[in-house]
């Protein structure tokens, strides 16, 4: 009996706090606009991050296969 009362008293403020948040689920226009230059820089960073490892693996495929590479071939 005491456990149920305790659970209700502890749970109620947490639930009420979540209900009083004041955030809307409806999307609207951005509150702070992001400049085009910042979008380009962010896109370039994301592109580099996504493709760096696959490009690295493809360029070093001969090493992974165990083939010898001369330093003259790299230049």
UniProtKB/TrEMBL annotation:
One of its GO terms (cellular component) is mitochondrial inner membrane. GO terms for biological process: mitochondrial electron transport, cytochrome c to oxygen. Belongs to the cytochrome c oxidase VIII family. The keyword Disulfide bond does not apply. It holds the Pfam family COX8. It comes from the Eukaryota. Residues 1-24 are annotated as: Disordered. Keywords: Membrane, Mitochondrion, Mitochondrion inner membrane, Transmembrane, Transmembrane helix. The chain crosses the membrane at residues 40-59. InterPro entries: Cyt_c_oxidase_su8 (IPR003205), Cyt_c_oxidase_su8_sf (IPR036548). This is Uncharacterized protein. Pathway: Energy metabolism; oxidative phosphorylation. It is a single-pass membrane protein. The keyword Membrane applies. It is found in: Mitochondrion inner membrane.
